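Dear colleague,

Thank you for sharing your sequence with our group. We've completed the structure prediction you requested, and as agreed, I am returning the results in plain text so they can be pasted directly into your records. Please verify that the sequence below matches your submission; if there's any discrepancy, let me know and we will rerun it promptly.
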Amino acid sequence: MKSTSRELVKASINHQKIDRVPIADAIWPEALEEWHKQGYPENVNPSDYFDFDISYIYMDCSPRFEQKILEGKSDNVTYEDRYGYTASYEKNKVTLDFIDHKTKDRETWEKIKNKWTRAISSILIYIRHGRRLKKAMRNYMLLKNI
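Please find the predicted structure tokens below.
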């Protein structure tokens, strides 16, 4: 008998025997754009389309540094992200090259730690409201019959 997604994930977390590995993936926006050109349906979540066993919930727990593109060439982009990293990537590639970070030493940490404190506070707010999130996820799982 085939296991449901819920059974697979639960058994995996508990190191029990499973009939297959639970499936999950994070699809890059560029990949999704290319798939649309090749016929992938618009407004369809890849988790649903490919019947992933694990779905992601995204919450922004970054310190919300200003995001900006530092250099944008036809094949390469260098940018600063919300977490304070400076990174670059080649278009149509999946790996990032991390170049720098705003926190270099104790002195820079002291200057920016309040941004991180706010980020941690937002995580605690999510945890406090976890019951609502848990209920929403339970309802979602019921809709997906898992």
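Summary note from our side: Residues 106-128 form the longest helix (23 residues).

Kind regards,
the structure core
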